[in-house]
Amino acid sequence: MTSDITLFVNPAAGRGRGAGAAQPAARALRAAGFSVRTVLGADAPDALRRAREAVAGGTGALIAVGGDGMTSLALQAVAGTPVPLGVVAVGTGNDFARAAGLPVRDPAAAGRLIAASLKGDGGRPVDLGLAGGTYFATVLASGFDSRVNDRGNRMRFPAGRLRYDLAVIAELAALRPVPYRIRLDDGPELETEATLVAVGNSSSYGGGMRICAEARTDDGLFDVTVVGPCSRTTLLKVFPKVYRGTHLGHPAVTVHRVAKIALSAPGITAYADGEPLGPLPLTAETVPGAVRLLGAARPPGAA
């Protein structure tokens, strides 16, 4: 294994924590004997191009410094290659890192753990999802939650969490079931109405909402959570349970475990790892062992 590794940094992550986090992570890695270089980009496409160049050039590891969005970008460079992925989680949600038992907002500890893994097991193989040519590590969202994202992205004021909260209120006021066509694996196409359909490679999204609470990344399967038609009152009662994962027992909720799913619904945008994938229809499939994750205490999503 080469001792040259690459930090892939989002300076804006976590309201500016990304830039500061790179330094203690790099110090920990250098103290362990690794040579560290940093990759930044003018924008996401430029950053991804630079990350792919580092992977093609034989870097010993690609270390994403930022949130779930930065991890998702790094996955596009390392998935299907021998280069392992490290995660220094300093973003807002950090769902993938939390599910894997990785340090959150402690870049020095993350750097030490990554160094130990590079010298030890070389990382744990984990599954990824693949949809429309894009790999994802956490959850592919569609329906109510993706409409909230759409609305929030269109809003220019206010900033931060309040924008999301206002988008939720607006979408609740306009709540209506979505007519889906769903194909699970190679079964028949099903027509159903649902409030949302979430395809989980791991368990959570949105900073701890365990929408696919029992999903794990070492079984070659998605957990697909379907929330059927609900009234506003029912959705408001169920919503708090998502943070504990206890919503899965509600009669409006069903879960399927599949290796592939095709989704179609009018006017719905799919999001994966919090980033827009594009409008439905699309097909998502699991890619078992698509990347080696450094320092994971457990397969992301495992209890």
TrEMBL record:
Its EC number is 2.7.1.107. It is an enzyme of class 2 (transferase). The keyword Lipoprotein does not apply. Residues 1-135 form the DAGKc domain. GO terms for molecular function: ATP-dependent diacylglycerol kinase activity. Its cofactor is Mg(2+). Keywords: ATP-binding, Kinase, Lipid biosynthesis, Lipid metabolism, Nucleotide-binding, Phospholipid biosynthesis, Phospholipid metabolism, Transferase. NCBIfam families: PRK11914.1. This is Diacylglycerol kinase. It comes from Streptomyces nondiastaticus. The lineage of its organism: Bacteria, Bacillati, Actinomycetota, Actinomycetes, Kitasatosporales.
